[in-house]
Amino acid sequence: MASITPSYDREGEHIGWQVAVRKKGYPPQYKTFRTRKAGEAWASVTESEMVRGVWRDRSEAESTTLKECLERYLAEVTPKKKSKGEGWYVKAWMTRPIASRFMASIRGKDLASEIRAMESEGKGANHIRLHRAVISNLFNVARREWGMESLENPADFVSNPKLPQGRDRRLVDNEEERLLAECDKSRNPWLRPCVIFAIETAMRAGEIVETWKQDPAGALDADGKHLQVKVSIGLQWSEVNLKKRTAHLPKTKNGDARTVPLSSRAVTVLEALPHNLDGRVFGTTYNGIHESYVRACRRAGITGLTFHDLRHEATSRLFEKGFNPMEVSTITGHKTLQMLKRYTHLRAEDLAKRMG
Q1: Which residue among 96, 127, 248, 253 is the active-site one?
Q2: Around Cβ 312, how many Cβ atoms within 10 Å?
Q3: Res. 57 pLDDT band, cuts 50 70 90
Q4: Would the N or C end of the chain have less CB density within 10 A of its end CB?
Q5: Distance of alpha carbon 322 from alpha carbon 269, whole angstroms
Q6: Is 334 a catalytic residue?
């Protein structure tokens, strides 16, 4: 049977009711409530669960905040992942108001509220999907390995936002010639070789050039400016073999290494480049390329063509050259044919030529 006794502060003021549940085979459970009715309800549920053999110790989950679990997850779980990008999302969760909540108090509606807030902040569907995946895995780890078996995973009650349709923007008419002509006029000497290399290899921007992003935890430097964190180091000369016409990528977005075959045009681009002392093939950053690329497109009168669309263009060209899906995925690094299909929009006129 449960015992319920009044609880007083140091001045003798009645502040609530302390409830104790003791049952053979289970550790004693204690909890304080503001009202006797709430204490009786908790005791009734706890005793019922013990009788039915379904009771789980909730003390750990009720005394540990989400932020504390995120810190532990970042130290113990994230380093074991192939892809290190997860750490960004873990740190981002630490800055949100829900991080101060105790694990046992977080429900599906709370996670749904955070997702709506992210949407109002302008975050994209895939960005939110990756945030949700971190919370889902965190709760699963806490239940399996950290003694919080009583937890319900809030992500189980919240659906992922619908991903937008894959982009199908490609270079049309004489856009490539116009773009390269403006690249030649750019003050960034790395722009033209980066653009050609992207079109020829289907490599991502972060696989080609060094990339920095703002620290998602919101850390500031001594001058009060947002700290920048290196995300990728870009292609290194040590990973390029011009004789074999290959570029090896030891770390990629999907976590797997891959070796990219180089076309004659890509090799010509590399042979013309100076060798940087720091080992980078392209001595610039993504921010530098992005800014000069946007200006070049504007001067060329080209709209709606992002740098990432060049990867889409390159992937489509591989299919148009007759490569099969498995061969293309080996080059581009797409892990599933469904993902590859989103990037592949073949020109009907080019297919007609192959039909004879």
Answers
A1: 253
A2: 23
A3: low
A4: C
A5: 24
A6: yes
